[in-house]
Design brief:
mainly alpha; 69% helix; globular; membrane
């Protein structure tokens, strides 16, 4: 039995699952910064870089969650995570496991993948016929 024959039909659906789960987890960073949930010590000043990041995480995460404007949003969020890594994490240490930037790197490349691969079939973009998905 060829495993690729069994798994290939699920690949587009799993792309949607990757997008949805990543967006849900990503949104939690925005809700923490902007809405104070879950509770944290973060309370960024309005229009500061952390506040702007929180808005991007909250709004961009919500758009990715439903799969609307997925490619441009994923590209923007990928860039946000690259900037976040180099501004907030890299100066602490060269090692991502020590500087706390491993999640930023992972989000950066997951969103970059979504930019190139599209949102998958379970998305608003697919429903309204925007591009391949």
């Amino acid at each position: 039995m060829d495993l690729s024959t069994t798994t290939a039909p699920w690949a587009p659906r799993m792309l949607s699952v990757l997008r949805i789960v990543s967006a849900l987890i990503f949104m939690a960073h925005g809700t923490q910064k902007i809405l104070g949930f879950p509770a944290s010590t973060m309370d960024p000043a309005m229009f500061s870089l952390p506040w702007i990041a929180g808005v991007l995480e909250l709004v961009g995460g919500a758009l990715l969650l439903i799969g609307l404007f997925s490619r441009p949003v994923a590209f923007l969020l990928s860039g946000e995570m690259a900037v976040a890594y180099f501004l907030a994490h890299a100066p602490k240490s060269v090692f991502p496991a020590l500087n706390g930037g491993d999640a930023a790197i992972l989000y950066c490349f997951v969103f970059l993948y979504i930019f190139f691969a599209g949102p998958g079939p379970w998305s608003v973009d697919a429903r309204i016929g925007r591009g391949r998905y």
